[in-house]
Write a structure and sequence with these properties.
It contains 15 helices and 17 strands. With 459 residues, the chain is of the alpha/beta class. Strands 4-10-9-8-7-5-6 form a seven-stranded mixed sheet, with helices on both faces. Helix 2 packs across helix 11 and helix 5 crosses helix 6. The termini are far apart.
Length: 459
């Protein structure tokens, strides 16, 4: 049976001209996730940023470019090749093969990553339980693809949720059930309620996705006591926890709270890691620590990481050894401590976060004119601040803000399953300078005050 695909339609080009084009497919003939807003969020924000390049960029959660140096790439490659020769006894031919060939599916820097987890996180990681991935995004996809064994399988996620997790779940046809966060980083009573309700409805919750440290987008963190209780619940309810930790090193308090994985004695936590914020985003290197024991049909017991590597071998074959080498060289150079490698970055992000919080307090003093209904949280680390407004903060307002006020931010509605965050926006402290922060907050304050006074354009 064939389908007639000669339907004519009108296509709008980038320069707003129209032209007749032949349609070869419709989205109804493609995977259903392609019509889901979660898969469009990142592209939408990038497009708006590209259209208004002179706007102050509070939307992007990317690292600062202040400390990028192209020579570092070469230095890190040299450091890694020296490590292969000195510490692993490789010959020049073996080093070339390691860098230039396809290589091991689970990665070639797994031992260095394991050392990093021990040094920075206090996690005793078996290197064989690590799969080095093409960014953390692939790690999320691999885990969800493996856990989604039947139509009734679902994943829980603390809401608001990073859109990358939501998008990955859509691609493997795995429903996402939101769990409330409140001001604690995760409402554990709601977690239990969602779990039990799902099971009554015949669903099988496999895992709960959570960022316990300075979450994207909320900026919220969990106390040690709540982390311990969450681990207890995970054991009691036979639930895995997908811990994502891209921002944990960027804390500004007296000491860090241990990760869930560092506190986990029963292999309930599958740990998702990324080098995008702490090493080099352009390398696109992440990893998953999956040390759970898996028995196959013959009764042989291996690691969950081994199962994930099977999926990866059919998806990306392996992660670029050259990219891994750059990250590996940075680890070697700093004694496998990314905390040591990010001293300048941590100081810069902390400075920027304080400037945003202080700047909001000056522009919207409690009880001051134009301050009614304007509130924000005050994270002690990470990249993000959430601002609550007395009016709708949606994509239309974002474009209005960029076009007429020259300031970009992220509508929080993108991070909710269903309706949520409609009066909130996210400000990122990572990709702006102090001068840009002052200019951007002035522009944002003008937008808010104009809307509060009934104006719809810059005063």
């Amino acid at each position: 049976m064939t389908t007639d695909m000669t339907t004519k339609t009108t296509k709008t080009t980038e320069n707003s001209e129209t032209a007749e084009a032949t349609v070869d497919l419709t989205t109804s003939q493609l995977h259903g996730a392609l019509e889901d807003p979660a898969l469009s969020s990142m592209n939408l924000l990038n497009e708006i940023a590209n259209h208004y390049p002179r706007s102050v960029q509070f939307a992007a959660g990317r690292p600062s470019e202040e400390f990028f140096d192209t020579e570092d790439v070469h230095a890190h490659l040299r450091a890694f090749t020296d490590h292969l020769a000195r510490d692993r006894g490789m010959s020049p031919a073996e080093i070339r093969r390691t860098l230039y060939q396809y290589g091991r599916t689970k990665g070639v820097v797994h031992e260095l990553v394991a050392r990093n987890l021990a040094v920075d996180e206090g996690i005793d990681a078996n290197p064989e339980a690590l799969v080095v991935t093409v960014g953390c995004q692939e790690a999320m996809y691999l885990v969800l693809r493996a856990l989604r064994a039947a139509p009734q399988d679902v994943v829980l996620a603390v809401s608001p949720t990073y859109v990358g997790l939501t998008g990955a779940a859509r691609l493997v046809d795995m429903p996402v059930l939101p769990v409330a966060s409140g001001t604690t980083g995760a409402d554990l009573d709601d977690l239990v309620a969602v779990l039990h309700r799902a099971r009554r409805e015949g669903l099988r919750p496999r895992a709960c996705y959570i960022m316990p440290d300075f979450a994207n987008p909320s900026g919220l963190s969990m106390s040690r006591a709540r982390r311990m209780r969450l681990l207890e619940l995970a054991r009691e309810e036979d639930l895995f926890l997908l811990e994502d930790n891209p921002y944990g090193l960027f804390h500004y308090g007296p000491e860090r709270t241990p990760t869930l994985k560092a506190l986990d004695d029963h292999r309930r936590v599958i740990y998702l890691g990324s080098f995008a914020k702490t090493a080099l985003p352009g390398a696109r290197v992440g990893y998953v620590l999956a040390d759970q024991r898996v028995a196959d049909g013959s009764g042989r017991v291996g690691l969950f990481a081994d199962q994930l590597s099977k999926i990866k071998s059919m998806l990306t074959v392996n992660t670029s050894p050259i990219a891994q080498a750059v990250v590996g060289g940075k680890l070697v150079t700093h004694g496998c401590s990314l905390a040591a490698a990010n001293v300048r970055e941590r100081e810069a992000y902390g400075r920027n976060l304080r400037l945003i919080l202080d700047g909001l307090a000056r522009r919207f003093p409690e009880g001051g004119p134009g301050s009614a209904g304007v509130e924000w949280n005050a994270p002690q680390g990470g990249f993000f601040v959430v601002l609550t407004l007395p009016f709708l903060a949606d994509d239309a307002l974002l474009e209005h803000s960029a076009r007429h006020y020259g300031v970009l931010w992220t509508p929080m509605g993108h991070f909710y399953e269903g309706v949520g965050g409609l009066h909130q926006l996210r400000l990122s402290a990572s990709a702006v300078t102090p001068d840009q922060i002052e200019t951007g907050l002035d522009r944002l304050a003008a937008l808010i005050k104009d809307l509060n006074s009934g104006h719809h354009g810059p005063s």
